[in-house]
Structure formats: structure tokens, C-alpha cells
Amino acid sequence: xxxxxxxxxxxxxAAVARAVLAHGDxxxxxxxxxxQTNNLEGLTVEPIQGxxxxxxxxxxxLAGCQGLYHVAAHYALWDQxxxxxxxxxxxxxxxxxxxxxxxxxxxIVYTSTIGTIGLPSERGLGNETMxxxxxxxxxxxxxxxxxxxxxxxxxxxxxxxxxxxxxxAPIGERDIKPTPTGQIIVDFMRGRMLAYIETGMNLxxxxxxxxxxxxxxxxxxxxxxxxxxxxxLTLRDVCLRLSRLTGRPAPRxxxxxxxxxxxxxxxxxxxxxxxxxHPRIPLEGVRMAKYxxxxxxxxxxxxLDLPQTPLEEAFEKSVGWFRAHGYA
Length: 328
Prior knowledge:
- This protein is α/β, with parallel strands linked by helices.
- It has a domain at 2-173 and 205-229 and 294-308: Rossmann fold.
- The chain is built from eleven helices and twelve strands.
- It has helices spanning 11-23, 55-62, 83-103, 140-157, 180-189, 206-219, 235-246, 257-275, 283-288, 298-303, 311-324; strands spanning 2-6, 26-31, 46-49, 67-70, 107-111, 162-167, 169-171, 195-196, 200-205, 225-228, 231-234, 253-254.
- Helix 4 links the parallel strand 5 and strand 6 (162-167).
- The chain is globular, with a radius of gyration of 19 Å.
- The protein starts with a strand and ends with a helix.
């Protein structure tokens, strides 16, 4: 089968490209004129130039393909122009899905986010049947991805053959930007984490996420959502694991969420009004820190046979890659 992959130059997308090639499919990748293609070096893929905001280019890119992995997104906790999130994540997704429907694709895997999975009001595990409250849809990234997922589900009801995957927080090699989770690792390695907020997250090896995409294409149920995750940890647990790997001491000072929040608001204002650069204390990350983002990944394990690489190995790969490439 020949497939188109969007976002293949990024962290998850590059891992998906490798997994799809290992599966034996022919791969075409959508790249923009400004894309950095380092993550595609050595891969036998067919690059084709296009843009999610250019429907004509998407029709050309999809010609001759039978499958689509839509991984591309504007993934950040801040942008000076918030409308960028909606143009790429909502409008761009709609453009691509409509083009895929016109092309008659047999199967589509859409990469959503764990942020579109709801969490219980009391501490507990989120699952695929839950949708987030308005408070849990904190920030333009999550809101735009929620709206995009709703667009996809609407098209599924009209007959578009889409399976949705919701990765948790992936770690591993080739996190070139890096992602917010990768930035935590980099900051720890640089000795910048002097304190922590007691919050929770679910982490997973990015290569397991990629295999989950391939298996969603092969055996996922149309219209279903699958959480691609592994282990629920606290941020303190993450720091202790990184301490064992790097030799740096884990921070011992735990800052209350209510103390950090006003600092994040101030940093957010400074970024927008003065520095025009990413805030050191991401407001949206702090807002969500009041929730333990822990999830039940049983559905993907049972239906997709999602691999569960031990997180110790995933952390080792991540730390080793960041160190080898000069991030810390």
C-alpha cells in the first residue's frame, strides 16, 4: 500500500515514517518549503511539497495513495499569534480530510492528542469515552485539536474511514524542537529544574506510538479513539528517573500550584508584550498541572496490541539523543 504521511519531519511523524516503512508500505511525505528534513535522512521516502492550508497541493499529494497518516500539527504551548493553531490544526485538518475523501482513500489514521480525552473530576484515569470539560481545554493548542477532532468525527459519520489515535507524552530519539515533554528532560539535563509542581502525566516510548499508528491503520475500528500510552507517573517520579540516568540531583522543592500560577500569568504577559518569545513558565502547562493527567491505555493494548517498552529504556534513548546532539 502507498501512504501519505504529514508531519513526518517532526518527532512523532518521523517515528511513524520509520514504522510504516518497516511494515513494508511505500511512503510519500508532505513537506513545506521551509521544513527541516533532518529526521528523514536515510529513509526511502518520496517527498512532495505542499501545505495543509493549500487544498490544491493536498489533492496532488494524495494522488495514487491508498492510505493517509495525518500526524502534522502546530504543537506548542504558546504562540504570539494564537490563530495559527486554528489555521493549521482545524482548517488544515479539514482541508486534508476533504481531499482524502475525494481521493477515495481506503484508510486514514488521524493523530489527535491526549488533551482531547477527558479526566474525572476526582483524581482517576481518563479513557476514550470521556471528553474534556471547558476548564480542561486549557490553551489554544488543546482547543484547536479538540475542534479538529470534532471535524474528523463529523466526517466519519459521513462515511470517511478514519481511526483516531491519542498519544500521551512521548519520549525518545529525534525530538528535534523539542516537545514540551522533551523540554522537561532538556531543562533537567541543563540543571534548570530547581523545583517542581506535583502533577501527573502518562509517558510512552515514541517508537511504541509509531507502531500504534500502523496497527490502527491495519486493525483499528473506524471512528474509534485509541489512547497510545504506557505508564502513569508523577513529575517527581520523572525527575528521580532522570537523576539516576544523568547523575544530577532531583529537585527537592515542591511548589504549590497556586503559587506558580500567578508567576506563569506574569511570564505570559511579558512574552506577549515585551520579549515576543516563548515563556519560560508556560501558562497552559501550569494550568493543566492541577490535573493528574493519568489514563487507562487498556483499549489500545487489547485491540491494537500496543507495545509497552519499559520507560527506563525510553528515558535512556531520550537522554542519550539529547546529549549526543548538543542539547545539554
